Batch of 2 targets.
Target 1
Amino acid sequence: MDKVLQVRELSVVYGKGCASCYKKTGPDFNSNICPDCGSVVAAHDVSFDLYRGEILGIMGESGSGKSTAVKCLFFDEEPTNGKALFYDEDQQYNLFRLNKAQQRRLRNHRFGMVYQNPNLGLNFDISAGGNIAERLLMSNVSNYSDIRGRAVSLLSRTEVLSERMDEMPKNFSGGMQQRVQIAKALATNPPLLFLDEVTTGLDLSVQAAILDLILEIQQQSQTSMIVVTHDLGVIRLLADRTLVMKYGRVIETGLTDQILEDPQHAYTQRLVASAL
Amino acid sequence: MNAPILRVEGFEKHFQLHEQDKLIPSSKDVNLEVYSGKLTALIGPTGAGKSTILKGIYRTYLPTAGRLLFTAEDGSEIDLASADEHQILDLRLKEIAFVTQFLHFLPRQSTLNVVAQPLIQRGRSIEDAKDEARELLAAMKLPMRLWEISPATFSGGEKQRVNLARGLIAKPRLLLLDEPTASLDTKTTERVISLIESLKYEGVAMLAIFHQPELVDRLADDVVEIQPPENSNLILEEIA
């Protein structure tokens, strides 16, 4: 089994931070705001491994730090502390030590991100096909017909009618925008895909179609994924293993069926009990 | 006699319910062995923790104490109680399968896909996997008109057969069976029995719970009686 990602002791603090930030926040204090300096400890001591083809779920309520962790890995945010190694084609990248150009290269070529809000992942000023072209251009595909052909095949894979590829994403429904976002993320065949609440706020039938699509991608391309969600159903359907977060801390990790059937932590027990 | 493929030593499981401040004992002092090509049956009253043992071995439940020593295909010995999650996922993919009385399947998938899934996950081509799924479903006499639709609307017996086919298709080395014939009629039960017999012949090790005692008589090479843990129906000790 090949390891794709190794994250150790990742911490993110908003604010100036002080000596008691980590000691006086977390589930035991029912808060992630440091009482001494007022800094917000969005995530602390988050560690995990991700293997090739594996889907890891990160579950927790809003404010638990689940998105923060993923945003650091995609370089949307800067961690205060911690180390992340990305293993790719015999290369090893120390993610938080890379310079901006190297980070951009990984973002454009080797990582894919799908945000809850399509506004973040798509450029609404250019067409759906243009969005995909943009990503392909950034990874040095520059032949017009190659780009056009690849865009058509990606959009058809995510079930967006290719007749609509020259339309602006703002004309699309939420589910379709999400599918264009997934097509864009997949454009470079990235080995690592981040999915941040991708089905939240969509109709149930649209959710189902998107989840099916994600599973299909994982099966066909052995893409490793980190799925951030507050939805137990999404976790159950997609994730092999799950991290449960609360107030910026990982309070429990395990095989997904074990987390759902035999949760150990009081908070996870309450969470699972409320869903059933 | 050959070495056992699975040795359970002093297995114990209790559930700690934080909300209710309670400790629920479910299994205690379980010792047993499972051999290739043989079926070990678990018997005992309802609530004795028979299913708990199977779920503990599959790691759907986290064992509280004891060792679950599994000899993998490469000869290495793995304690399933403490093995790394990735190791468990790998074993589930290649060596250990679990068939329960309930069918867990991906919604919106055809029966054929549901059954073929374990083979596809092991890297077989989709067409190949589907061919084997067809063969198995035919052997179980599941009507062909049902193959292309989702098992969601199937009867209990039909679902059960899909479930079994899915558990058996990848030819696991260890098969955990939790009342695999619970909702089947006599005729279908006979088919499942002959299937289990042929699996034994092929060398699959099985640990099973059967609802009907006559199935234990017919299929089990070894019988382990499970007693409910003490105090299991008393008010349980309060935990801090």
Note: The interface with chain B takes residues 1, 49, 51, 54, 208, 212, 215, 219, 237, 240-241, 253-255, 257-258, 261-262, 264-266, 269-270, 273 of chain A (CB under 8 Å).
Target 2
Amino acid sequence: MILSGRKISFTATIACILIFSSVSAQENLLDYNNSLKFARYLKSTGQYDFAMEEFERLNFHWPQDTTICLELVQTYRLNRQCDRLDNSFELLKDNIYRHQSLKAAEEYLAFSLTCKSESDRFFDVSSLLQPREKSFYNLSYYWVTQRYDSAFVYCNENKDLIMSNNPGLYSLTYNFENEKYKSPALAALMSVIIPGSGKAYSKRWGDAIMSFLFVGSNAYASYRAFSKKGVKSVNGWIFGTLAFSFYSANIWGSAKAAKTYNTDLQKRYQDNAEIIIYNSF
Amino acid sequence: MRKLLYIILFSYCLITPAGAQDIHQMKKFSDEQYTAGNYRTALKEYQRVLFFDEQNEYNDLYSRIASIHYRLSDLGSAIRYYDLAQTIENNDSIKFELSLKKALCNFKLGNYLEALNELYDLPGHSSAYLQNKKDLYMGICYFGLNEYDNSQEYFSEIVDSAGAEKVNTLFSDFERFNKKYRPGKVELMSMFLPGLGQIYTGHTFNGINSFILISGVTVYAVITTINYSLIDGLLVLSSWFYRYYSGGFTNARNFAVEKIEDEKTRIYSEIFSLIENHQIRITE
């Protein structure tokens, strides 16, 4: 009886040694920890396609893992996979609303801003944040969706909060609100009076000089031809027609130059705002 | 009962490793993917192997990963991995080959100077195959940098005497061609007689068009000067002449540059077919 007990305990010991040695002799590279480590390595080296595949596999095996969901959405954002935005919300929904995770909420908002997505859901999620973060994300939303009037109003209403926490974005919004635009009508009118002056008003100095010279030289040549040979002067009519064509084209061109100036100005502000916003994530 | 326990125990020991993916199995799987041409999958899994290879058993994978990047046309990453492979490699011949591969990536990216730097760092090699490969790459780099004398010298090194003669003829013809269509000269021709440079480079219609436009404006300006006054004539010229005149000779210059580039491409492929037929030690 004692012998049989010894035999059983010997067998059990051998069993334990064999099981532990067989498990510890090799490391499973596809288990949770190793896959997560490797996925993070891929993400940190900018191999977002591969990182997405790893996180998606992890998410499939461990769907309840909030860390994986969060990092998967972050990888989607870094890889600009905007078609996964709705899917990302589904992944983070529980985390945002049930667990009140601010990280998950901020990740979703950052992804929405990256995709310039317009949705009421944005404000639902941002309302869960602290006032400081909320003001930044809301103002950023108005900027990336190019709702400038709303951005000015929001910035003025939350002036102190934004100025203290995001001075760069505040001063950009303030400067943009007080920026002087060029009037296309005024530019056209200026070119009616002095050819090329409308383009000078829009800071197109080279164009302005060339327009003035073309219209001026052709008009002067026409004037001289008509003065010398009267209305029957062929040169007078040729140069007169050319001068008139340049003159009228220049009026239209001046209005267009003012519009282009305004568009360029707006684009410069928009680009700067996006740099500030995207560098804040 | 004990027998049954042993059977269960050993079965478990056999089954457990089959379910898990250890580094060696992963390497084997990656190799299979690579052999099957599934380079994307192989790339990812090789990286996984390297990432978990704490014993540095698979250092040869850096070079393999570099070659996958090269095949996938990601030449920047290929250079980075060839660099890593070179750092840990001890064998001089393999190091030499890795440098050549880096140079190849660089000149495929058009970075001829960087490729040349890489090649200059290489010492002479006792293997004729490797030395010839280096000379070939040097020739290509100098050709890409428009340094034709140096390029000719290196290309001549790797072909037999008949081939070297043909290389010399090719380069002499190309030099004559370059002189014939020197952009500055063609530009001057169009300054002297509008349209002449364009016609000289084979763009006859463009040349005639330029000649008619500029001579038309000039004739009209002369007529105006005769009928009216010099100021009126100059006014006619001022608006139109400069625009068509300067546009004309700039076009002529561009046509000359384009023609030389086309000839350069033709010569380049001719050199390669010549090397294929007259190589002396290029095969391993």
Note: Chain A has three domains: 29-129, 130-178, 184-272.
